[in-house]
Hints:
The protein is built from eight helices and ten strands. With 251 residues, it is α/β, with parallel strands linked by helices. The chain is globular.
Amino acid sequence: xxxxxxxxxxxxxxxxxxxxxxxxxxxxxxxxxxxxxxxxxxxxxxxxxxxxxxxxxxxxxxxxxxxxxxxxxxxxxxxxxxxxxxxxxxxxxxxxxxxxxxxxxxxxxxxxxxxxxxxxxxxxxxxxxxxxxxxxxxxxxxxxxxxxxxxxxxxxxxxxxxxxxxxxxxxxxxxxxxxxxxxxxxxxxxxxxxxxxxxxxxxxxxxxxxxxxxxxxxxxxxxxxxxxxxxxxxxxxxxxxxxxxxxxxxx
Length: 251
């Protein structure tokens, strides 16, 4: 069994650092690097790409709404055409730095509010997929299994990578529990590790209300912006390896 372990990185801005990117890059196999809209700036993007390339970690474009103040977690009214163009713009920006670091962008993963809305809204999912379609090189699209993102990827003939979350609780419908709900974020590394192992080995998780939810995934995410993210990521990696899961990028 092979599973990719991904993390959101490069989410600082200027002198402000959000996570220990270097430590996380020693643990994960894929890096979702912020492209400057919800977080990140040219210097942070360059640094993240160079550090990922040096470790052989796959680079993905972590595209989001143009919302630095809200960290991309606020729903914005953006037309499908504008969202397509803004997504392509972000992919292109990251691709330049990835190439300069001797690597390349291999996939796209929406961030925050865009991830959640595109999972349910086909027009938004199609806008993201259309941007990938227009990019000059083939890119995979990462998202929740069974989502509109998966439908859009299949419509456009784009490789889809089904993703699960070690450090987030699910609803009975298989979506992520909103962060505003108590218990939506798992902050215990052992609990996150157990959820990751269950996801990888059985394709299921236990929802916040106790329901059993099917989530067959190829990649598991640990959020870099969560407190103790390095410890959580390290514990998840160790638990997966102990369960005889081979860790490696899907690319």
